[in-house]
Amino acid sequence: MPGQAADASTATAKPTKTATAKADDPITCETSGELGSLIRKKRVCMHRSEWEAQRASDRMEIERGQVQVPVNGGG
């Protein structure tokens, strides 16, 4: 039967790049305390690549703030 042959070929197909990429980029969760509270915690879950991008962005913002010259000349 031709319908069964098509089903068998799709079952043996290789996984796509996105499926492989998702396997290589697992979701991880981190818990951090909320600002102003000793008890309340916040849990954030993202892919590993998203965590790396977030950390790189945070580092860039910190470095920009440290290097930036005040507009009013300081004082």
Tell me what the structure shows.
It is a single chain. 51% of the residues lie in helices and 19% in strands. By secondary structure, it is an alpha+beta fold. Strands 1-2 form a two-stranded antiparallel sheet. The protein is flat and about 55 Å long. The N and C termini lie far apart (85 Å).
What is the 3D shape? flat
Proportion of residues in β-strands: 15-25%
Q: Mind telling me the C-alpha Rg?
A: 24 Å
Average of the residue pLDDT scores = 79
Low-confidence stretches: none
Number of H- or I-type helical stretches = 3
| Widest sheet, order of strands | 1-2
Based on helices, strands and strand pairing, what is the structural class?
Answer: alpha+beta
Distance between the termini: 85 Å
By DSSP, the count of extended strands is 2
Secondary-structure element order, as H and E? HHEEH
How is the main sheet built? 2 strands, antiparallel
Proportion of helical residues:
40-55%
Provide keyphrases for this structure.
single chain, 75 residues, alpha+beta, two-stranded antiparallel sheet, 2 strands, 19% strand, flat
Write the layout of secondary structure elements.
Blueprint: H1 2-11, H2 17-24, E1 27-33, E2 41-47, H3 48-67
Antiparallel strand pairs: 1-2
